[in-house]
Amino acid sequence: MRIIESTDNLTLKEIQNIITSSKEYKKNFSKKLLGLLFFAPSTRTRTSFSSAIYKLGGNFIDIDPKKLDIKTAKR
């Protein structure tokens, strides 16, 4: 995966691959229910993930780790 800052440096084949991939993602997320679980609070990350899921046609459950019995390894 690479970071795309501009389409100026992309070939037509690369642009077609991006469009094909995005259609596959949308098809795979459509009508799916996903769980979002973040151990560290991050409004920007949570918002980015939830809006991406919504745009792809899915739904999500926002899981609060403080309300679950989950043990994390301390390093």
From TrEMBL:
The keyword Ribonucleoprotein does not apply. The keyword Transferase applies. Pfam families: OTCace_N. GO terms for biological process: amino acid metabolic process. Keywords: Transferase. Gene3D superfamilies: Aspartate/ornithine carbamoyltransferase. InterPro entries: Asp/Orn_carbamoyltranf_P-bd (IPR006132), Asp/Orn_carbamoylTrfase_sf (IPR036901). GO terms for molecular function: amino acid binding; carboxyl- or carbamoyltransferase activity. Residues 6-71 form the Aspartate/ornithine carbamoyltransferase carbamoyl-P binding domain. This is Aspartate/ornithine carbamoyltransferase carbamoyl-P binding domain-containing protein.
